[in-house]
């Protein structure tokens, strides 16, 4: 074979090898599919960082993302205002990116809450609790109770100043322990006729105070507590009442139930559930507790451990009225109760 022909064949072979290597570089093998975890926008830990969330958005998110930029929330928002949104295509999914612009240069240190904050059924002692609550609301709306017109929130003199009204609420609560609302309300009328203020009560002879309180349960002990409390309010609080649980509980004769209800009615601040004998009894009857309790304070701790906080404001007034009218201490009217078919303690006449 001539030399030039051998050279030509070697050249063609080298070109073939180069072409094969180029084609190999162009045709890349498919990468294994990586499952990307998509987060909902509320689950991300940082407020100031860009946020990504899945196409399955909440209604509020869809409303915000559909607004034009001029209508987006203003920067006066407590944390930040959304300034820009954009869409990113990732495979078959469309990811929406929201850039959040901090209101100020210093980004607040916001602690991230756990992703799964929604309670599951196992968190509730009784899965029927919400139906119980709705039925009690309906029954309370149709059947008024003494607490509606003579409860502690109705004991204050509407013509008095706010400071005096708060004192009236506290006194009404101190008298209400183990006493019917009707009896407490009448005793408060007698006290208000004597100008009910801490200074006046402090100087009132204890015998006269006992006479005004009778027939309130334990009226002698309550008269002593009222005198001591009035002296503290005059000396330490300028005749007003404390505006926090810790100091309210230091007052003579004031327990957790009174303190939490006082904060809600006098200061419009929800600090806990006021559990009296009605709430204690009904919570046990409806099996709203993981374990039966013997004391109202034990009931309060258990209820607060699972009952959603937005419901704390109404649960006392709701259950007290229900306990006064239908779920009474002795011989409850189970046949009239809308919860009779789902109440563990319901006592119904046997079918013949």
Describe this structure in words.
It is a single chain. A three-stranded antiparallel beta sheet has the order 1-3-2, with no helix packed on it. With 352 residues, the chain is mainly alpha-helical. The protein has helices at residues 3-26, 59-66, 129-142, 146-150, 162-176, 181-192, 198-203, 206-213, 219-236, 245-248, 256-266, 277-285, 296-306, 312-325; strands spanning 51-53, 80-90, 93-102. It is elongated, with a radius of gyration of 34 Å.
Q: Number of DSSP helices? A: 14
Helix content: 40-55%
Total strands: the figure is: 3
On the 0 to 100 scale, the average pLDDT is: 78
- Which structural category do the helix and sheet elements fall into? mainly alpha
Largest sheet: 3 strands, antiparallel
Strand line-up in the sheet with most strands? 1-3-2
**Could you name the ranges where pLDDT drops below 50 across 5 or more consecutive residues?**
31-62, 64-85, 95-118
Q: Encode the helix/strand succession as letters.
A: HEHEEHHHHHHHHHHHH
N-C termini distance = 118 Å
Describe the oligomeric state of these chains in a short phrase.
Answer: single chain
Globular, elongated, flat, extended or rod-shaped: what is the shape?
A: elongated
Instruction: Kindly estimate the percentage of residues that lie in beta strands according to DSSP.
Output: 5-15%
Radius of gyration over alpha carbons? Answer: 34 Å
